[in-house]
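Quick illustration for those who missed Monday's session on complexes.
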Amino acid sequence: MEEIRQRRLLMVPAPFEGHFPSMMNLASYLFSQGISVTVVQTQFNFKDLSASFPDLNFFTIKDGMSESDMKSLGLLEFILRLNSICEPILKELLIINDDVDFIIYDEFVYFPRGVAEDLHLPNMIFSPSSAATSISRCVLMDNQSKGLLPPQEAISQLEEMVPEFHPFRFKDLPVTAYGSMERLMILYENVSNRSPSSGIIHNSSNCLESSFISTAQENWRVPVYPVGPLHMTNPATSCPSLFDEERNCLEWLEKQETNSVIYISMGSLAMTQEIEALEMAIGFVESNQPFLWVIRPGSIIGQESLDFLPEQFRQTVTDGRGFVVQWAPQKEVLRHRAVGGFWNHCGWNSCLESISSGVPMICMPYSGDQKVNARLMSHVWQTAFEIEGKLERGIVERAVRRLTVDHEGVEMRMRAIRLKEEIEASVRIGGSSRSSLNSLVDRIMSLTS
Ligand code: UDX
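Prediction with uridine-5'-diphosphate-xylopyranose bound:
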């Protein structure tokens, strides 16, 4: 009898905190289904994951890019550069090792696509974001190519609704804070080039955005697999963070009343203006609510320390009503009974973690998909509200109380809890995300070069 050879899969995650963990979660799940997985890492942001994922193989591309390259080029230009450097290196690797059956790559590191086409390897795209985001990029490109958009800096003022893209306004489209519109269009053309692939995997769920998932399927005419939230579909695996977690904040949370704490974090990339951080600090103090604030080193523009924050803020922290960390164990924080609300930039992972913990949000999006996510949270699921315009201490204070004290916040929390229950059902056996994951495994098993 002919022996069935184990499928050999190459997975290429993007080297960013908001992208890496969800793909590693998927990688370990696919391995558990009998697929051999090799993870291709970049030298940039390299983290040794072999101890956390002993069953997976790892390969590093020597891209020669560093943190200072990212700072000097800007994120957008950096991603374009990283892709062009990595493509020939991967091609050479795959010519030497011709035993790969299949490639899955993150949408932002699209360099494997050309290699896969040249070598006739089936491939799939992994999007760590929502289907709504994928579609919004096409809507943005379409409007830009037709000359319907004002200059980049004016788009964020456009309150008008985008025709046939309910409930998004032009200002919600995923423009970037990290480079020019011209370069963004080049990036999005690469990111959105999906039809030649064998499918698109989304870290999302049908219970969250079934209509956008159907639209994505119609747009790209390939199967779409909404398999998320991956931290719940495959909870047994936990990918170490690129930063060190300060777990002592969990002890502080133990001392706080149920649903009283506002947790503030802006993900791994967003930068806050000094004046905004100052207004936030005073607003948190004046809200009279306990607060847990993640301030990443270097994330406040022009400030290396927190000495610029006023004495009343420092006193509140000393008194124990406030707690500041550089990086928190976020998923555990959001599941803690003391957390009543989440102030966030609307990175997709944070949105998923928030709703799957039943925690309502205050949205302050900065760039890209965060604007789309904020609109989903506030106008589709109605588990959040967005802060818009100039950030002042009074606005901060009222927003915190609106979410953690007022009746409106209680209603948002109830909707978030209902959504949490739907998500839990979707990742159980028979649920939509779990079934999608099974279909993905079947598809990989059936595809060969
Ligand atoms: C980036 C983009 O900015 C985001 O818009 C996109 O959707 C994904 O890639 P990032 O800005 O880092 O991600 O935000 P987010 O998607 O929320 O991911 C941050 C991750 O870091 C989350 O999984 C969160 O749990 C984790 N985190 C954040 C911590 O573990 N501790 C912290 O203190 C802060």
